[in-house]
């Protein structure tokens, strides 16, 4: 993986004077202590427990860059429910390259709406496949079809892309991400997947124990808990089920 390429997003910074004083974001430690983030690698993973703010930060980066809040390519403009946080309005994006034309923002929670909107927008001129049949595929197959539809270098923001993928399909996605990074694409991905997090050369930013900080693969909860369960399954289940009994 080439970590010397110019980035579509080199860094983001937060103007806290643009944030409402009563914003709930001020109560999230990883976000309230955030002044700026720098993206030096082709692939950056955001990790942390549920509620630590990684998806909110990813959404803020996406909307500040110009993506639709519910996902899609840069030309998608649809809304089924206005639930975008104020963070995007307070974020400034530092670019080293022009706006990426072959790009998307993926949100697992709103993918059904995105797949429906794709019927209206049709295939992107940078896409190698039509999105017309996303609703006709299984959940996991439609996810992978969406990820695999863009071959040009671009910016790809993904929120929990593993949510509908089997372990084997997660490996396929890992290979796609690596291939894209080699071609010059940039990825920022919020994930809980110990498979995706194993991508060599990626930067991992931990949202637990604020402020946001880099961590090693083996330090992530996704790795530690999975490794403990696989290697000590009987002991883990004994303690877990006994405590719940």
TrEMBL record:
List the GO cellular component terms. plasma membrane
For the biological process aspect of GO, one term held by this record is:
iron ion transport
Q: Does the keyword Nuclease apply?
A: no
Compartments in which it is found: Cell membrane
Membrane topology term reads: Peripheral membrane protein
Keyword set includes Membrane: yes
- SMART domains membership: AAA (SM00382)
Listed GO MF terms: ATP binding; ATP hydrolysis activity
Which keywords label this protein?
Cell membrane, Ion transport, Iron, Iron transport, Membrane, Transport
- One Pfam match, given by its short name, reads AAA_21
Pinpoint the AAA+ ATPase domain residues: 40-211
**Residue ranges that the Swiss-Prot or TrEMBL entry lists as coiled coil:** none
Spell out the protein name for this chain: AAA family ATPase
Q: Species name for this entry? A: Bifidobacterium crudilactis
């Amino acid at each position: 993986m080439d970590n010397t390429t110019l980035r579509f997003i080199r860094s983001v910074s937060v103007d806290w004077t643009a944030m409402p004083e009563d914003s709930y974001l001020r109560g999230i430690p990883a976000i309230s202590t955030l002044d700026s983030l720098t993206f030096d690698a082709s692939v950056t993973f955001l990790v942390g427990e549920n509620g630590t703010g990684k998806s909110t930060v990813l959404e803020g980066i996406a909307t500040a860059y110009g993506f639709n809040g519910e996902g899609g390519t840069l030309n998608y403009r649809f809304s089924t429910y206005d639930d975008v946080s104020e963070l995007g309005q307070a974020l400034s994006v530092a670019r080293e390259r022009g706006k990426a034309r072959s790009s998307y923002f993926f949100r697992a929670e709103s993918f059904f709406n995105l797949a429906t909107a794709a019927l209206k927008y049709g295939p992107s001129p940078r896409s190698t496949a039509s999105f017309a049949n996303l609703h006709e595929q299984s959940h996991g197959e439609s996810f992978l079809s969406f990820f695999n539809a863009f071959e040009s270098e671009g910016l790809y923001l993904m929120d929990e892309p593993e949510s509908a993928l089997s372990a084997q399909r997660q490996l396929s996605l890992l290979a796609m991400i690596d291939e894209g990074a080699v071609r010059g694409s940039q990825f920022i991905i919020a994930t809980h997947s110990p498979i995706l997090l194993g991508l060599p050369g990626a930067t991992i930013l931990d949202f637990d124990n604020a402020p946001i900080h880099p961590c090693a693969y083996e330090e992530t909860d996704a790795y530690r808990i999975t490794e403990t369960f696989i290697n000590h399954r009987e002991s883990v289940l004994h303690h877990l089920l006994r405590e719940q009994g």
